Amino acid sequence: MGCHRTVSLVVLVLVLLLQWPALSSAWAPVSRTITVDSDGRGDFRSVQSAVNLVPNGNREWVRIHVRAGRYREKVTIPKEKGYILLEGEGHSSTEIYFDDHAHGSTDRLMRRGADAMQTYETATFSVHANDFVARDIAFTNTHNSVNKSRVTQALAALVDGERIAFHRCAFSGFEDTLCDNTGRHYFRECVIKGGVDFIFGYARSIYDGCTLVSNIPRRYGRGRAGWVTAHAGQHAGDPGGFVFKGGELRGTGRQYLGRAWNKYATVVYYHVNMSSVVVPRGWAPWHAGNETNDVLFAEVGCTGPGSDMAGRVPWEKHLTETEVEKFVDMSFIDDGWLSKQP
């Protein structure tokens, strides 16, 4: 019996050793860690100082660990500084916040597009580099947090690069909270709070198990509703789109699920629990006008009082479980890059 156990143990060890290369290569290693502490007990007191230390052309993952605290600053990850892992200690404990905002007519700024400099420059946090990860941290724009009588664009975050992932992060604002601008992005178990177009852009993104929170005041604009999303496609057949997979939509006020920034907009809600904040019509054509044939707005398998599709706009697409698979499958955004992140 003892000999049998020994042989079995040897076989098990051999199997594990044979599997070890595959297991060890599943996630990328981190080459170094830079610590940010607002009380001065780290390498830097500010997040931007830590980012600046990462060399241009970086090709090895660098962790920037931000200890619990509130950091009032605007942080930018420039295009030249890829392979950064920005890590907090929980989005309720670690927050980067600022209160910048756009000047002038909101409608005029939106018609100029998301690349209008005034829009970009309002973001509390901006990432322009490819290959970036953030975990357990909050990004907040406080500009419209109290007075919503004269709101304007005030971004919490601008995401403008390829192969970017956010895990358990929070994005808080009101007008245009998250500019999910271009590239392939993955948001897992994040919380996104806003009132008007609070997720907008041209990107191809999956929001996996995320919580969308409407913070429109109950008496805002005499019952005026907001829009959760404002997506735009680059052209016909563009693979972009916002896909909400699981999670929930809740909060105060009233919300359309989205409005079409142009006639190639794509937004899919899949198995999302929707509260009664959802406006019965569900969607608005906005800049698509009467050209809604190419707009792909869809809901599949959603639940909750806001998921009743009886009053939806007639041009909403009705996808089967088979047809929606190409959007909810991870291959919609991932060709292997997610498993190569730390």
Automatic annotation (TrEMBL):
Which pathway is this protein assigned to? Glycan metabolism; pectin degradation; 2-dehydro-3-deoxy-D-gluconate from pectin: step 1/5
Q: Can you tell which superkingdom this protein's organism belongs to?
A: Eukaryota
Question: Which InterPro entries does the record associate with it?
Answer: Pectin_lyas_fold, Pectin_lyase_fold/virulence, Pectinesterase_cat
Q: From the UniProt record, list the reaction(s) this protein catalyses.
A: [(1->4)-alpha-D-galacturonosyl methyl ester](n) + n H2O = [(1->4)-alpha-D-galacturonosyl](n) + n methanol + n H(+)
Which segments constitute the Pectinesterase catalytic domain?
34-334
GO BP terms: namely: cell wall modification; pectin catabolic process
Q: What is its EC number?
A: 3.1.1.11
Q: Which GO terms describe its molecular function?
A: pectinesterase activity
Key word Transport present in the record? no
Record's keyword terms, sorted: Aspartyl esterase, Glycoprotein, Hydrolase, Signal
Give the signal peptide, or none. 1-26
PANTHER family annotated for this entry?
ACYL-COA THIOESTER HYDROLASE YBHC-RELATED, PECTINESTERASE CATALYTIC DOMAIN-CONTAINING PROTEIN
The record's comment on protein family reads: Belongs to the pectinesterase family.
* Role played: Acts in the modification of cell walls via demethylesterification of cell wall pectin.
Protein name, UniProt field: pectinesterase
